[in-house]
């Protein structure tokens, strides 16, 4: 009886950890401390500027999931997955700020990847230019029974989502959706919002190249880079899109909201359900 109860507990734990989309815990993937950029000394102006920068990210009232700022010579960028609401995003930014300083003490450049957010800082300019390194990839251990079929379906889905995300506005470049003609595959792609449209496409295209090498026929996987990321699974891992952010009425016109999800059909008959968040901002 005790063994049966233990087995049920493991099963419930698996369901809560892997299958319930509302469970978006801040799972740390990895930090990268960049030694090539050198170290700062304790008590230096760089440390004071870094602390000021990361504290501002933790205390921000921004509710659209994209943060960028500078303090002295320190530049920082942070963004959350596009389906994550403001409270969870700010919580992830706060945790990232604390963990970066703990895990990369005295590093002048570092980046940390969580499941739902990315935070980086550097003493060089990092805004508006796409970067692929340092790179993290995590393939699922299970395979599809039809490797070729799954790869083709995944490639088509990711390309559609890539274009949707890249055409987003300056606050968010994110798209999610699923394909249903093969075994259902859910996917989400994203770029750092400061990256221009073509650079977003280039970043994602480069990251997709690891799929045939490290994720060939896999039933799930994720890849994280400073300027872009993607993830795919056979279960729904993302949440419904939150409301689009409302720009200041003194600076911007009313935002353009996306229509409800619809079925799209490609030229070869493949049906896709695409959900993209596009925020159109006029300077």
From TrEMBL:
It comes from the Eukaryota. PROSITE patterns: GNK2 (PS51473). Pfam families: Stress-antifung (PF01657). Keywords: Repeat, Signal. Residues 28-126, 132-237 form the Gnk2-homologous domain. Residues 1-25 form the signal peptide. The keyword Ribonucleoprotein does not apply. Residues 246-266 are annotated as: Disordered. Residues 246-262 have a biased composition (Pro residues). The keyword Ubl conjugation does not apply. CDD domains: Gnk2-like. PANTHER family: CYSTEINE-RICH RECEPTOR-LIKE PROTEIN KINASE 25 ISOFORM X1 (PTHR32099:SF51), CYSTEINE-RICH REPEAT SECRETORY PROTEIN (PTHR32099). This is Gnk2-homologous domain-containing protein. It comes from Vitis vinifera.
């Amino acid at each position: 009886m005790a063994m049966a109860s233990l087995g049920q507990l493991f099963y419930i734990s698996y369901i809560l950890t892997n299958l319930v989309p509302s469970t978006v815990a801040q799972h740390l993937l990895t930090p990268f401390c960049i030694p090539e950029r050198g170290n700062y000394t304790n008590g230096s102006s760089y440390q004071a500027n870094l602390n000021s920068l990361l504290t501002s990210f933790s205390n921000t009232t921004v509710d659209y999931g994209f943060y960028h700022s500078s303090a002295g010579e320190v530049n920082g960028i942070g963004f959350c997955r596009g389906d994550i609401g403001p409270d969870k995003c700010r919580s992830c930014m706060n945790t990232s700020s604390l963990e970066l300083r703990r895990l990369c003490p005295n590093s002048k450049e570092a980046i940390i990847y969580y499941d739902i957010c990315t935070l980086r800082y550097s003493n060089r300019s990092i805004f508006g230019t796409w970067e692929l390194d340092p790179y993290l990839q995590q393939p699922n251990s299970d395979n599809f029974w039809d490797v070729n079929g799954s790869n083709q379906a995944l490639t088509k889905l990711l390309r559609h989502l890539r274009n949707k995300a890249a055409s987003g506005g300056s606050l968010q470049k994110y798209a999610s959706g699923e394909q249903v003609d093969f075994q259902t595959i859910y996917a989400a792609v994203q770029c750092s919002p400061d990256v221009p449209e073509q650079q977003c496409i280039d970043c994602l295209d480069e990251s997709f190249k690891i799929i045939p090498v490290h994720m060939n026929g896999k039933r799930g996987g994720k890849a994280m880079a400073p300027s872009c990321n993607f993830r795919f699974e056979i279960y729904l891992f993302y949440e419904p899109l939150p409301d689009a952010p409302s720009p200041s009425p003194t600076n911007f016109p009313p935002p353009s909201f996306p229509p409800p999800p619809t079925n799209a059909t490609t030229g070869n008959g493949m049906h896709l359900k695409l959900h993209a968040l596009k925020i159109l901002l006029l300077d």
